[in-house]
Amino acid sequence: MSHDIVIPLLSNAIKAGTILLLPTIGEIFSERAGILNLGVEGMMLIGAFFGFIVAKLTNNPYYGIIAGMAAGGIASLIHAFVCITLKGNQIVSGLALTIFGAGFTTFYGQKWINMNLSNPLKGFAIPVLEKIPVIGPILFMQDLIVYLSYILTIALWIILYKTTIGLNLRAVGENAKAANSMGISVSKTRYFWTFFGGLMAGAGGAYLTVAYAPFWLDSITAGRGWIAVALVIFAMWDPIKAVIGSYLFGSINALQFQLQASGTSIPSAILNMLPYLVTFIVIVISSIIVKTKHIRPPKELGIPYFREEK
Amino acid sequence: MFYFEKRKQTPLKLKIAIPIVSLLIGFIVGSIAILITGTNPLMVYKELFLNAFGSWYAFSETLVAATPLILISAGLIIVFKMSVWNIGAFGQYIMGAIFSSYFAIFLDPSIPKPLMLSIMIVASLIGGALWALIPTLLKIFWEVNEVITTLLLNYVALYILKFLMYGPWKNPTSYGFPLSKTFPDSAQLPVLFSGYRLTIAFIFALLTVAIVWFLLKKTRFGYEVRVIGDNPTAARYAGINVNKDIIIAMAISGGLAGLAGMSQVSGIIHFLQVKINADYGYTSIIVAWISYLEPFLMLLASILFGGLSSGGYSIQISMRVSYGIVGLIESIVLFSLVGAQIFLNYRIRWKKHES
């Protein structure tokens, strides 16, 4: 394949990957704090919806991203309240959040269906770096959100492994009781990182409708939230590995799009199935690796914490 | 500050109040959502109620919607009791529909109706069960998280259905619409009363509730399910073959979801198409949860949510209120229920903050 096919393909893969990277990282941090949030799909839908509407009404894509993040964050607080304050079952509450996101956006989204953004998020090249052969046009001719996602991933990796904040966060997810006796507030930590997960899911959703596919459709996220939840296992709860996973799936998305556009004889249903089927296979393989390498999820993932219980 | 104190016993009043209050909260939040769109929520709820329970026909349509919910939830009750999370009823329903449709589309339509329907029922049970067994075996052998695999397989099943509908199984005379050919009469489930759409599948669903009740309350398997649900490690020590029980439970759960899919295509739609109401798979999770995993309460909850579903479709047409309101109400009910579970086992105590 020649450069003029491969470079746009990979550049598009980064964009498609960013839609997954943001929610995946958010979920990693939420799970590190011990809160499993299966509502990513719902939070992404809500983020996508508010992102689209605000970007449409203000004609400013950046306001759209901010609105989508805020909406995802607020939605995550329902889950936080049910799971942290009321110690509810995290699996069921997460599912409720997904049903909520789908119901909410279907209910209010009717009149926005098939509308387009006249001013979607545009990219700009980063001077000097864009001149690097091959890598430059792929990584450094993107938009602000993609650049921020590079910085964010590195910053979060440092926070997780090199700072007290990260140490406390991991302590809460591994052994809440011990963390509590060290003076860390388990509830506050969990609230904060669940909220962060919501912000990131909302950002991923908003990026989808403000930059990648600037229009509104019912269920426009199409299961990407579930792929993000699965990628957390692939990433083994590590932000840097999440980048690899997300871009890998971004490539599948981009390739699928390219093949469809080129009028391949492969039925579109099979092409559309690919991301889910590949995620499925990858999850099976990474689960086996996780098991044999004795890597495990945060020990208290999904377990509510009762402070007064002796 | 408040804290939680463990209860010795759960008062029955509370067990009754929690689902009712959860439903109320769902409808109150739903009415706020409707109000925002400038519609009168009381009118919407009145229409919803009349379209769900207001006449014999409306009620029969509610039972039509309840039938798949009953079948799917009956299976979910068993697996949820073991704390195995089958979130894949959506996909298992689709696979049941596909497997049974194969015979409706390709078998000689002149074979006797009882034979044809029996083949289709068995096929749907097998289709759903197989689809549930893939994640189950992966869970048992390699500890692959079944929540995620059952979910991903929902999408895979959906695209298999789309592939068939846009490709090999498409009816050439359907003017490009993605539909299969209409099922022959021999492949259509008989209705119970002429003029109504309620089919014999509703009787199967009632029987299923009785069977699941018997299985859980009166058999060794049911006893093992309860022990595993309480503590899987202890169950293993007690010599219970946990893996075997999980496989059986998931096969039943997937099979029943498959049967629900068959009941829909064979009994209601009469052909295979992309939209076969597979979201019953998610609603069933709420139904199972609101009924404390008790078979007879589940029957009641299925009829209630069946009414919400059939009434929801009606108001979408008559009042132009989006069907999304149903999902919205359902999710709030579910949130309230999950949140309120704590009051079953704990009581809230207040204490002055000392510092």
SSE sequence of chain B, one letter per element: EHHHHHHHHHHHHHHE
Q: Biggest interface in this structure?
A: A-B, 50 and 51 residues
Question: Residue ranges of chain B: pLDDT <50 for 5 or more in a row?
Answer: none
How do the strands line up in the largest sheet of chain A? 1-2
Describe the structure.
The complex is a heterodimer of chains A (310) and B (355). Chain A is mostly helical and 310 residues long. Chain A is built from 12 helices and 2 strands; from the N terminus they run ααααβαβααααααα. A two-stranded antiparallel ribbon of chain A has the order 1-2. The longest helix of chain A has 30 residues, at 3-32. With 355 residues, chain B is mostly helical. Chain B has helices at residues 12-36, 41-53, 56-81, 89-106, 113-142, 146-166, 201-218, 220-230, 232-237, 242-269, 280-290, 295-318, 324-340, 342-345; strands at 2-6, 346-350. Chain B has a two-stranded antiparallel sheet. In chain B, helix 1 runs antiparallel to helix 13 and helix 3 crosses helix 11 (280-290). The mean pLDDT of chain B is 91. The interface between A and B is large, with 50 and 51 residues.
Short description:
Helices cover 71% and strands 1% of the residues of chain A. Chain A is an all-alpha fold.
Topology:
The complex is a heterodimer of chains A (310) and B (355).
Chain A: H1 3-32, H2 40-58, H3 61-85, H4 90-109, E1 124-125, H5 135-139, E2 141-142, H6 144-162, H7 164-174, H8 176-181, H9 186-212, H10 224-234, H11 239-261, H12 268-292
Antiparallel strand pairs in A: 1-2
Helix pairs in contact in A: 1-6, 1-9, 1-10, 1-11, 2-3, 2-4, 2-9, 2-10, 3-4, 3-9, 6-7, 10-11, 10-12, 11-12
Chain B: E1 2-6, H1 12-36, H2 41-53, H3 56-81, H4 89-106, H5 113-142, H6 146-166, H7 201-218, H8 220-230, H9 232-237, H10 242-269, H11 280-290, H12 295-318, H13 324-340, H14 342-345, E2 346-350
